[in-house]
């Protein structure tokens, strides 16, 4: 009945292959006169999701998480992962060949300082390491009198016999009604920013920035509509777009040629040399630009300006057309969610449902809209103790029944042409315990505090983050992830530079879209996360206000599970907010559903005091 077409549940990890592949790699390194190699989980753009041909870390080690780095020496090897993936790595990697090293205990550079032999020649791929990453590696190598060597081709590619091909998904032009701003106007804004910062050129290494600038979308990676590409935008003169020509139809090429010279990616190195000639100051995005670019700019006589791309803030502050599209996407998504939640309530109590069943059902309800392009990330569907694993991804090996008396956490999102969604609800099957109600309500109170926040312009996400944690802190509890991340408009579901977290130093600005997702996780028992997307907007006028103020408009439209709320912990103002939110969900989603779903929605959104 239900099918997941955009997600798979097979466990692709192959620990048993690690030893043989490590042997192949070491033989290749010896052939090249290298004593070691760093293997990051990265592509040349530092994308969150990478194409299969760039999953070198997974091929070598079996580890399939989204962040990690392997360090291979002649006699030993390690994989360094953060706290999200320590258990996963231990299960997926051959621990006889690779030591699993928690990032909290030691960094890759520190590991090298204690394991790299003096005089060793340690290799790195300059396409896969940023300038700041290279600086850290250089410091570690210098500390032990070793030498860093930039490889001219990746050694893994030489021994990866069945490596998938480079993706060549077709590029599509963004509908002007959805983009809300022409490429010509965007380029003018970018050039104005370059002039203001006294920069001669900008190299775009982040394909999200390229897609936004040139109003294009693609299908080269899963979950994000990206065309892998590069661009160079000079302060004066024509821009250059570097993209595989086979991705472009004649009509698309013709449209793009009005704004940029269209070139093959193999010409990028030479173009960077030309852009840097004559002592030009060239901005590289410090987060995504390969170290190779900085080396070429300096060799060509240019000056490297490392810093954030000026496009990042432009892209983050959505225009009215983009916000209208996001609202339309969330209405459509809200109706699909209502159908899923009604179905879940009717079926879960019968027993027999599993995590995979829920993932497949929700994707199916979204596909039934006729507008789904992809999911925006692999759905996190954790029953009982699996819900306590923050970045849990269900596989056939871990698939768990959804049992009575347990919480079920489902975090999911969709890519529609007019917008990107991301929503989390935590549901109960049967009766929740008093502890579940207490923790759920404390998380809900934090969620409401963020949603209701009014703050002066210039406020950062770090300043707002404690609002979401205060009620957990009062009980000696907390959660280890950020409260919110930026979200793109039919782009990445995780978009910078703004976020609501302890590290969120970028001031929030009108038009930004952020998540609001406090949580609580009890290891081995249950997890709770409640997430809506928000637009940074102007709040209702406050009489006597002495400063410009900002607030939030909630985008996501889906009921919270009333059965897990402890009303005694909510204030009258919080109850009023929740009743008003549910009334809005009923009013806006109600006309889009009928039959059993409509009846379920009426009950799920009834006033709490009623």
UniProtKB/TrEMBL annotation:
This is Aminopeptidase P family protein. One of its GO terms (molecular function) is metal ion binding. Residues 325-537 form the Peptidase M24 domain. One of its GO terms (cellular component) is cytoplasm. Keywords: Aminopeptidase, Hydrolase, Metal-binding, Protease. Gene3D superfamilies: Creatinase/methionine aminopeptidase superfamily (3.90.230.10), Creatinase/prolidase N-terminal domain (3.40.350.10). Residues 21-143 form the Creatinase N-terminal domain. The keyword Protease applies. Belongs to the peptidase M24B family. It comes from Ancylobacter pratisalsi. The keyword Iron-sulfur does not apply. Residues 549-608 form the Peptidase M24 C-terminal domain.
